[in-house]
């Protein structure tokens, strides 16, 4: 089940992709490469913004979470950046979410 936030995050890139296709479709033949470059730039901007949102989300989660290694994880996420946030997600956040889901099913 997708939440409203996830749906909103998907609508923005789809809208930008459609918009870039419309811009490239209106360009003359000799300038068709310009539309492709605009499309690539828009996709890259959206991708970088989503990575930034993910990084901030993992940093906030790490700050709020009670843990013995809290300071270490904050340093890892800040210094390594998005890669540190991905590592944090798979090592700390995802296993805890799975553990909570299993406990709620047992109750």
What labels describe this entry?
mainly alpha, 107 residues, elongated
Explain this structure.
It is a single chain. With 107 residues, the chain is mainly α. Helices cover 86% and strands 0% of the residues. It is built from four helices and no strands. Helix 1 packs antiparallel against helix 2 and helix 2 packs antiparallel against helix 3. The two termini are 21 Å apart.
Helix-strand layout with pairing:
Blueprint: H1 4-26, H2 32-64, H3 70-80, H4 82-106
DSSP helix fraction: over 70%
The main sheet comes to: none
In what range is the share of β-strand residues?
A: under 5%
Supply the number of helical segments: 4
- How does the helix and strand content classify structurally? mainly alpha
SSE run: HHHH
Count of beta strands: 0
Q: Radius of gyration from the CA trace?
A: 19 Å
Q: Report the uncertain regions.
A: none
- Distance, first to last CA: 21 Å
- Give the overall shape, derived from the CA principal axes: elongated
Kindly state the mean pLDDT as a whole number? 79
What's the gist of this structure?
By secondary structure, the protein is mostly helical.
